[in-house]
Write a structure and sequence with these properties.
The protein is an alpha+beta fold and 135 residues long. It contains 2 helices and 10 strands; from the N terminus they run ααββββββββββ. The strands form 3 sheets. A 5-stranded antiparallel sheet has the order 1-10-5-4-3, with helices on one face. The chain has a 3-stranded antiparallel sheet with strand order 6-8-9, with no helix packed on it. The protein is globular and about 50 Å long. The N and C termini lie far apart (67 Å).
Length: 135
């Protein structure tokens, strides 16, 4: 009889474990990501990115956004969860940060640019800088 409560507890704990994300990036998007980071080395993640560095944004997929800073640095943000509808090409990401930066944990809305209404939301993760390797 004692085994049943232990099995139920073990099953409940197993259900709470997170699975690694499935394949969510198409081959075309993976090639774009590789092109952005080609010849660059990933650095230590940072928690905030200045709005001035977040001007040139590229959506890689519904979980990954890259911010280019010139030709030598790219900041990659892996959203904390899938950012639904971000990757469809006509939607835009809108942040409402009172500060002059975007930080880990900030929430952004995905807005339909044609109809101007929200179609999703996202939470930023850390920003990983990819910098051109010095020779």
């Amino acid at each position: 009889m004692r085994a049943i409560p232990l099995l139920v507890t073990a099953a409940a704990l197993a259900a709470c474990t997170t699975q690694p994300p499935g394949p969510y990036r198409t081959a075309e998007r993976q090639a774009e990501f590789q092109k952005l980071t080609l010849g660059k080395v990933a650095g230590k993640p940072i928690s905030c990115l200045s709005h001035t560095r977040a001007e040139d944004m590229t959506v890689i997929d519904d979980r990954t956004i890259a911010f280019r800073e010139g030709g030598s640095r790219v900041y990659v943000n892996n959203m904390r969860a899938e950012c639904t509808n971000l990757d469809n090409g006509r939607n835009v990401l809108v942040t409402r940060s009172p500060m002059s930066q975007i930080c880990r944990g900030d929430i952004a809305q995905v807005i339909d640019s044609l109809n101007h209404f929200p179609v999703g939301s996202c939470v930023f993760g850390d920003f990983v800088p990819y910098t051109t390797a010095s020779r």
